[in-house]
Design brief:
Strand order of the largest sheet: 6-5-4-3-15-14-13-12-11-8-7-16
CATH architecture of the largest domain: Clam
Helix content: 10-25%
Number of helices: 9
Radius of gyration: 27 Å
Distance between the termini: 30 Å
Shape: elongated
Number of domains: 2
Strand content: 25-35%
Order of helices and strands: HEHHEHHHEEEEHEEEEEEEEEHHE
CATH topology of the largest domain: outer membrane lipoprotein receptor (LolB), chain A
Largest sheet: 12 strands, antiparallel
Number of strands: 16
Length: about 425
Amino acid sequence: MMLNMKFRLALLVVSFAIGLQAQMQMNVQQLADFVRSELALGHHSDKQIAAYVKKLQLTEKLTDKTIIDLEAQGAGPKTAEALKELRDKTANMKPPGHDSTYSPATAPDNTLTTGPATVTLSSKAPPIPPPDSIRQQKMLDLMRQYAMSYTQNLPNFICVQVTRQYVDPNAGDHYRSIGNILAKVSYNEGRERYNVYSVNGQLMETNMEGVPMHGGAISTGEFGSLMREIFEPHSQAEFGWDHWATLRGRRMAVFNYFIDSGHSSWSITYSAAPGDQQRIITAYKGLVYADENTGEITRIKFIAVDIPRSFPVTEATEILDYDAVDISGQQYVVPLVARLYMRADRQSSKNEIEFRNYRKFGTESVIKYDLDPKALAPLPPNKTEEQPATQSASPGQGKTPQPAKPAGQKSGSDSNPWTLPTPPPAPPQ
């Protein structure tokens, strides 16, 4: 408790220093540094920052470009309005000799300026400014080319799909396990096929639609089909810049998108009993993460929107990650993990889907699926969690590490190709 009180006291001292600084004259560079520091720290509201800005006296002309740049870096509407008032007051002054804010088309200006010292409020790196519209369009063109040719560059392969199913009957986030589904997924000449061979540890031969359901959800189409649909001309997707991110050690450009129901191919099927199915095509939106220089897509997020109120499913979200894996001695970018969240009839469901043990498509006698419990354990957080992107991170830094060979994997063509893996442990309650 004492530590908390000391921390609050420190904040009061910093706020007092801000108040003193607000009475000083500033040049445009110092103003920009002040606003960006406040945005990075996040301790003061848009209204409070605007109040400080209104007290400042500038010694140089404030231009529209500087205001636009600061807005792009997170300045709120009240702060922007206060900056515009300063712009009007300094209209007859001489402009600064250099650009005081990051230009979207150039590298940041790290030149030190002379003049009174300014208050530094944060040790966090400033956010990376968004690319300009020309650069954004180039990125989108690369992403579209990658998505449209993605399936053509895939080999014919098969793998194991592990689906862990969880539900919360009270429509919350307190999930409990309801079992696991193991399926052989084959990808041959651009066609995906799902053959279930184990449900909750019991041998079974069926397709995904034939799995006995005790609640939960089922999804298919995790390979090239979901990616391609977003960039197909008939989808008429609307794209916009969202943010920079770091995913699996690499800087990613993140765009948002929206596809209306009239051009959508994303469907949701609900079944309360055998023979009683309801299906809709829904509009959806989401995010696409991609390498800014190659267009390689590493994550796609799908969120259903405008679901009819009469339909039992009220929410549906899927996140699909791609990563490089070794298939017969060559690296290919293939689905790594998918997470599906749905809410229907006062029940929440969650699927954690992982793709394991990729092999070139061939005779089934040489395909081995004897994964041990360690190989079926959930992926570590550094494989699935997004990290913020900073100026210190280099674009495209860090190559995706080659996955380790699954533990317990046998060799030789005489092993049983459909040996059942030990079911993964239930998640902690």
